[in-house]
Amino acid sequence: MLLTCRRAHPHPGRIRRWSRQRPLTAALLVCTAGAEMMLLPFLGAPAAILRPGVADAAGLGVSLPLFLAGLVLLRLPQLHALAGVAAVALAVLALITCNLGGLLAGSALGMVGGSLAFAWAPASAMHQPAVLPDQPGTDHGTVPQQTLHETEAPQCPAS
């Protein structure tokens, strides 16, 4: 057997960069909430808790878009605010339609994940200053920059 010095992953920082550009925790929580609500009726829970019928179709109509909102967060992070609000709204609606929101766990995960998605900001936006760029040829809105040496000390009146 040949022993070679080979890295386990050819691009070690690639996955880390990808995950830092997306609301990964929020997306995983929202996807988990949607999947839990979709799969709960098929896991063999007691019939008194889970009733098939119209509520089952309504539950699928809420849990599938919740799962898709999590996928939108992974694929299109620029839509984080819209997907976050939609996830919270669907998680609240699931309390009525999806067997108490997936026995309350699915709704709680969806609300927390949607809130995290709404509050998420890209890493590049956190490091940018909040100063508007100067446009050439315009001098409105600009303040002349003075250094400490250029400013005059206030004169005290002589008494």
Please give a quick description of this structure.
This protein is an all-alpha fold and 159 residues long.
Write up what this structure looks like:
The structure is a single chain. The protein is mainly α and 159 residues long. Helices cover 55% and strands 0% of the residues. It is flat, with a radius of gyration of 27 Å. The termini are far apart.
| Helical coverage, percent range | 40-55%
Order of helices and strands: HHHHHHH
Tell me the overall shape: flat
Q: Calculate Rg over CA atoms.
A: 27 Å
- In what range is the share of β-strand residues? under 5%
Keywords, separated by commas or semicolons:
mainly alpha, 159 residues
SSE order and pairing:
Blueprint: H1 14-20, H2 24-39, H3 54-75, H4 80-97, H5 99-103, H6 105-119, H7 123-126
Helix pairs in contact: 2-3, 2-4, 2-6, 3-4, 4-6
